[in-house]
Amino acid sequence: MKFNYKLFCLLFLMTVAGSCKKYLDVVPPDVGTIDYAFRSKNEAENYLFTCYSSVQQLNDMNRSAGFTTSGEIIFPLNLPGNPIDITGFTLITGTQNVGEPGLNFWDGRANGTAMYVAIRRCNTMLENIDKPADLSAVEKKRWIAEVKFLKAYYHYYLMRMYGPVPIVDVNLPVEASTAEVKVKRQSVDDVVNYVVGLLDQAIPDLPATIDNPSKELGRITAPAAAAIKAEVLMTAASPLFNGNPDYANFKDKSGKNLFPTSFDATKWQKAATACKTAIDMCEAAGLHLNQTFIPSPAVTNLPDSLKRVLTFQTALTQKWDINPELIWSLSNIWHGQEYCIPRLTQKANQNDGQNPAYYAVPISTTDLFYTNKGVPIDEDKTWDYADRNQLRTGDAANFYYIKQGYQTIKAHFDREPRFYGSIGFDGGIWFGDGILDAKIAHYVPARGVTALAGPKTLQKTNITGYWPKKLANYLTVYDDGFNWTDFSMPVMRMAGLYLLYAEALNEANGPTADAISYVDRVRARAGLDGVVNAWAAYSKNPSKPTTKEGLRAIIHQERRIELCFEGQSGWDLRRWKELQGVLSTPLTGWSIYEEQAINYYRARNVEIPVFNTRDYLWPIWNNSIVINDNLVQNPYW
């Protein structure tokens, strides 16, 4: 596509991004190059797409803290000669440090993207937008809005990692003094206000929809910018940033508080208003929950139960230009399906070099998903929670979910559709992979080294016995090689926005009918009863949805289920200040080398997380602190 091509083709502009990183790299490079870059509309458009390049790099989930530090996925860290940079996955083991911070988005080191370089590009674009004589007023207005959005997003990305960060609204002149370059961190509230202000400026001049997907997918729209604004305000209202006592005494060197010292309840109402505005804009633009599974090519023998599972799966993996749910997705293809698909055929087993399948899901993640009654597994009074790991054999009633006659465990039965759409497990049906007849679909044989999907070499082993099925397009085939059906990772989709609104309403006003209704919209797509009815009928705690605390727990779990593996849960758990609790116990998997079911289904520790209060915010690299004596380090580092 034209957009992708132009985004990466200008090598001389990419060298702009790689220049000296002293302090924050806010001093522009050789201005002679800038004059060339803006000599015409075509050249200026290339520079616009260079401004987008940093956000496109976020499509690499291995550098997303929302993915790698969430506890949803375990990557085997002891692999010799790892094919990917696993820095992000190591951060839950207590290895983060100030000497060389992992996922350093401040300086662009250790698998992080240099966000201040990205901001500098945006400033350069805004400073030179008047130069191309052949740029129309309409195009100019849109481009300015896009760049303002990007500059806001880059500041926001830094804020949710580091908290208070320097605001770089304009590039400093080449002749700037050392004192001018030594910028200071601004308070969290100042950063939020700056980001929201930029988004408010951008939204009116952005298009409501992308009318030419072949050339413009990935460019920002007004509904997408409004949705991101809502997320920014939700982040600012959440416990990590709103009167967090852990940071009450965090000040800069002049004595200015960098975090709000008291809780401000009005921030939740502001967030709720922004969420509703974004929802209205999205729906006016034709966006809605993906409610229908439209198979292509044709699928046979597809029951309604499996159709519901595939409807949920394709809300993520369906191509953006035909997916009604995607508010904003990155135009780059998400590469990683080979980490998620178990070996299901003899040919796949023989050609396992292409299919490591080592994105492993811990048991704790699978336990998040509800029973088929729509309540947590430890609350459902009709579900055998105490004996969930006892053996049970697949039967005709569960034919489309579990291999008939195969011995697995009770925990894999009677679960909600999102469980079967998200998790691949021993004995579980894996619809797709080249077989589109539901009656003869593949299943996952995972027990022991002789099993097709079982452990092989260190590089080709799933260490828990669970796969993130949701991250594999059902049309992708792995047999004697890969035949990919690609997709892009969403930044925001309608289900996530609905749940943000429900959360904001509950925090602002308690468990109102409106708040519950937006949760119920998401649940209905999964075939579940509404919250009130489900808890009243099946939960051991039927009054849970009637209190703010109870509905909060429900909404948090709904987001972790609905958005699992999408790079969202790690950020949510941080802003809620719940990540330390999630990572306070060992992450476990099954005894994958055992062939007999009775031995296989014995939980074992596969990772011992180490997460402390300090880990909620990233440390600033020590070198940056030494060079710029106006900077202060984050608390507890």
Automatic annotation (TrEMBL):
Keywords: Cell outer membrane, Membrane, Signal
Domain RagB/SusD: 325-637
Xref: PROSITE patterns: PROKAR_LIPOPROTEIN
Keyword Nucleus part of the UniProt annotation: no
Source organism, top-level taxon: Bacteria
GO cellular component, one term: cell outer membrane
Limits of the SusD-like N-terminal domain: 113-231
Major subcellular location class: membrane
Subcellular location: Cell outer membrane
A Pfam family of this chain: SusD_RagB
Gene3D superfamilies in the record: 1.25.40.390
InterPro entries found in the cross-reference section: SusD-like_N, SusD_RagB_dom, TPR-like_helical_dom_sf
Stretch forming the signal peptide: 1-22
Family listed: Belongs to the SusD family.
Name of the protein: RagB/SusD family nutrient uptake outer membrane protein
